[in-house]
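Lay summary. Proteins are chains of building blocks that fold into shapes, and those shapes determine what they do. In this project we predict the shape from the chain. Here is one chain we studied, written as its sequence of building blocks.
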Amino acid sequence: MKKLYKVYVMSMTLMMLMAFMVPSAFAVDDMWTVANTIIVDVYSKIAGISTVLAGLMSAVAVVG
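And here is the predicted shape, written in a compact code that computers can read:
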């Protein structure tokens, strides 16, 4: 009976240690927040490039 108790205690200790060593994964943001951030970033870069190109075309039209 004493040996069975030792096996039980060791197995419970091992299971608790395994439970504590499991890494937890937490997402920083949800999918929609990340998608919104990406869309806003891409749109701002496209808008910046379009603004530069519009200025260049205006300068070419004035000079030409």
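What the prediction tells us: Residues 2-63 form one domain.
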